[in-house]
Amino acid sequence: MISSIFYAMKIFPYLNFDGQAEQAILFYQSILGGELEGGIQYFSEIPGMDIAEVDQQRVMHVSLRINDQVKIMASDTLTDMGKPLTIGNQNYLSIDADSKQSGEEIFKKLSAGGTVEMEFQKTFWGAYFGSFQDKFGVSWMINYDLKPGEA
User: Fold this and answer.
1) Per-residue model confidence as pLDDT tens digits over 80-128
2) Alpha-carbon distance 96 to 86, whole Å?
3) In this predicted model, what pLDDT tens digit does every residue of 9-53 receive, in sequence order?
4) How far apart are CA 91 and CA 97, in angstroms?
5) Gap between the Cα atoms of 68 and 61, Å rounded
6) Are strands 115-122 and 41-42 parallel, antiparallel or unpaired?
7) Where are any strands of DSSP class E within the chain?
């Protein structure tokens, strides 16, 4: 039985590239249509983080919303921080939780026995977010966008 806490969640592909995220997402947009949500964000825009010059113009995050049910998200890997692209880490399943509570619960249950990359926590972009590789080697991202007035 599916818990009602998970009923409204959506799952989207999250793709990693080796410096081609912007080119790829614009290519996908030219074919599939849609709008870029929030523009293209680069690693150089992260506040308080020292990013090597070689990685500053790499894409930290981009989201192509094709319709209400479909979006493709992407980023580039950071070469200077020991996170090169290798076959197997270029894809994530990204869950867009419908509440902070459901995001925490999904994160806790799916990451059990796996390797956490980033704990589920409040971020500078106005969301709670966490990422991990589950016990089967599948990479996941859990995100909950804060609503106005939420902390």
Assistant:
1) 877 777 766 678 889 898 899 999 999 999 899 999 999 999 999 999 9
2) 25
3) 788 999 888 898 999 999 889 987 999 999 999 999 999 888 889
4) 19
5) 19
6) unpaired
7) 10-17, 35-36, 41-42, 59-65, 71-76, 91-96, 115-122, 127-133, 139-145
For the chain, list the domains and their CATH numbers.
4-145 (3.10.180.10)
3-state SS assignment for residue 52: coil
- For tokens 């992260």, name the residue: 46
> Per this entry, what is the length of the chain?
151
Phi, psi of 61 (to 5 degrees): -165, 140
Distance CA 51, CA 41 (A): 14
Give residue 52's identity as a one-letter amino acid code.
A
Residue with structure tokens 């409204």? 8
**DSSP state letter for 18:** S
∠ CA 13-116-69, rounded to 5°: 20
